[in-house]
From TrEMBL:
GO MF annotations in UniProt: electron transfer activity; flavin adenine dinucleotide binding
SUPFAM superfamilies named in the record: DHS-like NAD/FAD-binding domain
Protein's name according to its UniProt entry: Electron transfer flavoprotein subunit alpha
Ranges where the Electron transfer flavoprotein alpha subunit C-terminal domain occurs: 67-146
InterPro entries: DHS-like_NAD/FAD-binding_dom (IPR029035), ETF_a/FixB (IPR001308), ETF_asu_C (IPR014731)
Coiled-coil stretches noted in the UniProt entry, renumbered to this chain: none
Lineage: Eukaryota, Metazoa, Ecdysozoa, Arthropoda, Hexapoda
One GO BP: fatty acid beta-oxidation using acyl-CoA dehydrogenase
Superkingdom assignment: Eukaryota
Length: 192
């Protein structure tokens, strides 16, 4: 199912019980500093067998400057940017705003950015204050990852793309023209 349109009740009768929740699914809340914790059930799990998987190596992603899952501003780029060189404009805009960079599955498949920056059903769910969707069509799978965004700004040349149905602000135009103008206006040394 897409866009979180499936509900299920699950009963687990064995131990251990493990629940995984996609990062970014819940909004950030202030931690409870009082000591009001209660242990509902305590159990010990002993592993009697060898591990099924072993971590051989860990590689840090390149160009990951701001944490995508916790960023206040995210600039996302899609296949509509057409080339890896054009996608570099996304990085420049994000640097100007101290924002995180995200990518659609299609753009990651084209090698514009690494898969660990992917937003959507098979990527991360994000909840920034502002999300810029640039060159993104608005496929249901991507919308599933951005629906918690407070404000969505879409930039696309095709006014018929579904992303505009989910956006709060829409700009019809070429990203290669609009992004440099945004960078100039948002630049710290711009006095206007």
């Amino acid at each position: 199912m897409y866009s979180n349109n499936l509900l299920a009740t699950v009963r687990l009768h064995s131990t251990p019980k493990v629940l995984t929740i996609q990062p970014g699914y819940f909004c950030n809340v202030e931690p409870n500093t009082g000591n009001t914790s209660v242990i509902i059930e305590e159990f010990l799990y002993e592993r009697n067998d060898e591990p099924k998987a072993v971590l051989l190596s860990h590689k840090q992603s390149e160009k990951v400057k701001t944490n995508l899952a916790t960023a206040d501003i995210v600039v996302g780029g899609g296949r509509g940017l057409k080339t890896k060189e054009t996608f570099e404009l996304i990085h420049r805009l994000a640097d100007t705003m101290h924002a995180a960079v995200g990518v659609t599955r299609a753009a990651a498949d084209l090698g514009f950015a690494p898969y660990d920056l992917q937003i959507g059903q098979t990527g991360k769910v994000i909840s920034p204050t502002i999300y810029f969707a640039i060159g993104i069509s608005g496929a249901t799978q991507h919308i599933a990852g951005i629906y918690l965004s407070k404000i969505i700004v879409a930039i696309n040349t095709n006014r018929e793309e579904p992303i505009f149905e989910s956006s709060d602000i829409g700009l019809i135009g070429d990203a290669t023209t609009i992004i440099p103008q945004l960078i100039t206006k948002l630049s710290p040394n711009n006095n206007k």
